[in-house]
Amino acid sequence: MTDAWPTEIRVHKDHRALTIAFEDGASFTLPAEYLRIESPSAEVQGHSAADRQLVAGKREVRLQELIPVGNYALRLVFDDGHSTGIYTWDTFHELGREQDARWTRYLQELASKNLSRDEAGTVRRH
């Protein structure tokens, strides 16, 4: 754990990204699509690495609501109905630090399964 503590949390006007700044000086802009596909929920992460779900078709997803969970996290509600992920401050910090590597891995996984960012379950046409 980094004991990350936010100093600012801002949802962009178009609801497609969240910017979060931390006491340690780090600041990250996290797209809604990225937050959705990396949701810490059991629905996405499963109960083991083998259970992790690849979430496709979320390019247009938007943040609908941010609900405080105590003083340690937010529950994000997305406009596709997903609302079970509890994002701790440490989770946000980790997602920000690892954004490039996680995003690259996600795009590679989509390509390997011939899936698209545009519609869930849609096969890409070549």
From TrEMBL:
Superkingdom classification of source: Bacteria
InterPro entries in UniProt: GBBH-like_N, GBBH-like_N_sf
Keywords: Iron, Metal-binding
Pfam families found in the cross-reference section: GBBH-like_N
Molecular function (Gene Ontology), one example: metal ion binding
Ranges for domain Gamma-butyrobetaine hydroxylase-like N-terminal: 9-92
Name of protein: DUF971 family protein
